[in-house]
Amino acid sequence: MDDVLTIVIISDSTGETAINYMKSVTSQFPDLKTSMRRFSDIVDTDEIDEILADLPSYSIIVQTLANKELTQYLRSRAKDLDITVLDILSYGIDKFEQFTGHKAIRQRGLTRTLSRNYFEMIEAIEFAIQYDDGKDFRGFLKSDIVLVGVSRTSKTPTTMILATKNFKVSNLPLVPEAKLPQELFEVDPRRIIGLIINPDKLSDIRETRSKSLGIVGESKYFDKGRIERELEYAKEIFSDLDCKVIDVTENTVEQTATEIVQYYYENFPEEKEVRNLN
């Protein structure tokens, strides 16, 4: 297409976040002709209407609006005009809310510049989703940290907390009947964390989870004998991997993540220095 793509930056702050982001994106398309318009300090729907009234049809909107209602309004109006909206701020906020249980204050102007850490965090979150629950064994060798443990040892929540700290984390559920991937044994043991838990607490957690899914009656999923065999199997695997083991019985997810980060930096102090520079 020979037309010039109009990139429309709409922000409740300076718009530098979106500009830096789009510079990174468009640098990958050297043959694409673009022009950029920036609208800063947007705080109401009337301003949005004025912007949209004068857009070329071949446009894309990149917005960094912290206010949820304003974001929804922009999406709705843009949809009516068949214009794509890239929402690079809400993506991170929504994922934080989903996996931490905390609600964002969504206050405009809290960040005036986009740091490298923001992009690294988004990349780490996407990585965690892609390689969660052993979906793709190739992720193990790309990971900063690999979490392994039986079902319901908080592998995924811990993975997401670590992702918000810019760590690329994958995880694998341990099931006695399932063959372990060879890729796991190729990972530096210092990067592998085994998660263990008290069998009685794990049984309670699994039973509660089953009931929440509408499963009633006895089940080997939360049978204590079965759980004890799973945990013994996990301990054997941890020994074979020669990895760090953390007991999560009394831990919150945040406490487990903190313990992992401390252990990680003890083994890779040079990475702490690099991350602090960012």
From TrEMBL:
The UniProt entry, under InterPro entries, shows: Kinase-pyrophosphorylase, PPDK_reg
Q: Does the keyword Nucleotide-binding apply?
A: yes
Q: Per its UniProt entry, what is the enzyme's top EC class, as one word?
A: transferase
Catalysed reaction equations from the record: N(tele)-phospho-L-histidyl/L-threonyl-[pyruvate, phosphate dikinase] + ADP = N(tele)-phospho-L-histidyl/O-phospho-L-threonyl-[pyruvate, phosphate dikinase] + AMP + H(+); N(tele)-phospho-L-histidyl/O-phospho-L-threonyl-[pyruvate, phosphate dikinase] + phosphate + H(+) = N(tele)-phospho-L-histidyl/L-threonyl-[pyruvate, phosphate dikinase] + diphosphate
Q: Answer yes or no on keyword Nucleotide-binding.
A: yes
Going by the entry's taxonomy, the superkingdom of the source organism is recorded as: Bacteria
Q: According to its UniProt record, what is one Pfam family this protein matches? A: Kinase-PPPase
Residues binding ADP are G149, V150, S151, R152, T153, S154, K155, T156
Q: Might you give the EC number(s) for this enzyme?
A: 2.7.11.32, 2.7.4.27
Instruction: Alphabetically list the UniProt keywords.
Output: Kinase, Nucleotide-binding, Pyruvate, Serine/threonine-protein kinase, Transferase
UniProt GO MF annotations:
transferase activity
* PANTHER family for the chain: PYRUVATE, PHOSPHATE DIKINASE REGULATORY PROTEIN 1, CHLOROPLASTIC
Instruction: Describe its function.
Output: Bifunctional serine/threonine kinase and phosphorylase involved in the regulation of the pyruvate, phosphate dikinase (PPDK) by catalyzing its phosphorylation/dephosphorylation.
Family that this chain belongs to: Belongs to the pyruvate, phosphate/water dikinase regulatory protein family. PDRP subfamily.
**Matching HAMAP family, A to Z?**
PDRP (MF_00921)
- Name this protein carries in UniProt: Putative pyruvate, phosphate dikinase regulatory protein
Question: Could you tell me which species this protein originates from?
Answer: Anaerococcus kampingae
